[in-house]
Amino acid sequence: MHPLLLPANQPRHFYRGGAGIGRFRGAPPPDDHRPEDWVGSATGRFGGTAGPTVLPDGRPLRAAVAADPAGWLGPAHVRAHGDSPALLVKLLDAAQRLPVHVHPTREFARSHLGSPFGKTEAWLVLDVPGGAGGTGEVHLGFREDVGADRLRGWIDAQDGAAMLAALNPVAVRPGDAVLVPAGLPHAIGAGVFVVEVQEPTDFSVLIEWAGFAPDGADADLRLGWDTAVRCVDGRARSAADVAALVRRPAGLPESRPGVRRVWPEAADPFFRAELVGDGADLDPSFAVLVVLRGAGELRAARTTPLRAGQTCVVPYGAGPATVRGDVEILRCLPPAATI
What we know:
There is one protein chain. The chain is 17% helix and 29% strand. It is α+β, with helices and mostly antiparallel strands. Strands 1, 13, 14, 15, 16, 17, 18, 19 and 20 form a nine-stranded antiparallel β-sheet that branches. The protein has a six-stranded antiparallel β-sheet with strand order 2-3-10-5-8-12. Strands 7-6-9 form a three-stranded antiparallel β-sheet. A hairpin with a 3-residue loop joins strand 17 and strand 18 (303-307). The protein is globular.
């Protein structure tokens, strides 16, 4: 088994974007509604079939993993999570502000959606309006407590302006890392391009859909709003609470030579990620790689050349590896099997 380079996998979506992904990868998308590239995905879209990765040999990744779970994921992972990679990685390029939305927790997903996974997610910002010297904007959590009646009023009236005004605005720059716990209302601003790492579901409750998904279909995950709103965390988030969710590039600690940890320990039960460069030694693991800059190679039983804009899925069975070259890679990992 060996690392496999992946082509773009950009299902059509209701919101605009994708040109940034095209520039990053070096190939334009087919139209302007391809804002997400699902990388190393064994997950499908909610209510649809798009999303899963097809490997270069024509096999769906999901089928390849199911045929050899231990080879792809490792015996400890299989004992903990079965044949699910327990991970979904996306490139997300928003050409317009995303609607205010919320993802369910694992507890909510188990009770109402028949899934062991919710959708805690995190972002590593790659680009913003104005480039390296510019800033983008995201919105995280309500600034004051929002009760169920007030929230339902906004939803019924589709008062997106009130929802957005109630959220904490956060300025972001390239290199910033943001953790978004399940239940937290949030939105991504126009022109923000991120790598999104998340639990392996497509569960989103769109509390704002007017002007985005015109008929609001599936906005409540087909649960009815009385149930769907129960996944929304309406508690106030202070400036300190929000600051704890954001790490700036200078604050990313080195965990071992050539490796920097991206998100805080609170992300570990859901996923992990490392920024790796020249000299980094990597233990055997299922992983999704996004090459952020430069060029180099991944040296394992087989050497894989890598350059900026490429993505790669690495099976556990590829064994230990070392990174060489002037290259920076985001290595996305499932939760540790002991978590």
